[in-house]
């Protein structure tokens, strides 16, 4: 006779095509059922079943949060037919990874934000350009935001963000690639001619 195992719950947040996705994973025997408790009308969920490395049934549920919805009051609940009076609840959702997203502001600068956790103040952020481990002139870092002060392709390249908090350390990268407008190309050509008259 196979042994029973109470459901063990874990959860985290992911970022998928502009949406925040809460992921809940229940491992136990027999396979648990997962449902969500949310402050809004429950969004669409995707549920998958598999076996982990110990051959215990694992059920994974993905909940797509509405735009601008907070996950502070979000809970994932697991129940099992073998443990009718036991309810396992998980609500400490955090991001497993960091990522970089563009930000629209009132300034003329091009702005990107390193996202890691619900509150930017909970982490320390370090920005750098990959080929120099520092930031070039024309960029400015303020906390979890990176500002490009002009749109020239001179600032193109791979930029990295390191976020460090009590929950751990995560890294994210952004590949900046722009195309100079005709006026910028003319200005650069003129600068090159002044530097080297033979060009």
TrEMBL record:
Any single Gene Ontology cellular-component annotation: membrane
Biological process (GO), any one: heterophilic cell-cell adhesion via plasma membrane cell adhesion molecules
SUPFAM superfamilies, per database record: Immunoglobulin
Biological classification of the source: Eukaryota, Metazoa, Chordata, Craniata, Vertebrata
Statement: the UniProt record of this protein carries the keyword Disulfide bond: yes
Organism the protein comes from: Bagarius yarrelli (Goonch)
Superkingdom of origin: Eukaryota
Main location group: membrane
Keywords, in A-Z order: Disulfide bond, Glycoprotein, Membrane, Repeat, Signal
Subcellular localization: Membrane
KW Cytoplasm (keyword) present: no
InterPro entries linked to this entry: Ig-like_dom, Ig-like_dom_sf, Ig-like_fold, Nectin/Nectin-like
Domain Ig-like: 57-171
Name of this chain's protein: Ig-like domain-containing protein
PANTHER family the UniProt entry points to: NECTIN-1 ISOFORM X1-RELATED, NECTIN-RELATED
Sequence intervals crossing the membrane: none
Gene3D superfamilies assigned to the protein according to its UniProt record, in alphabetical order: Immunoglobulins (2.60.40.10)
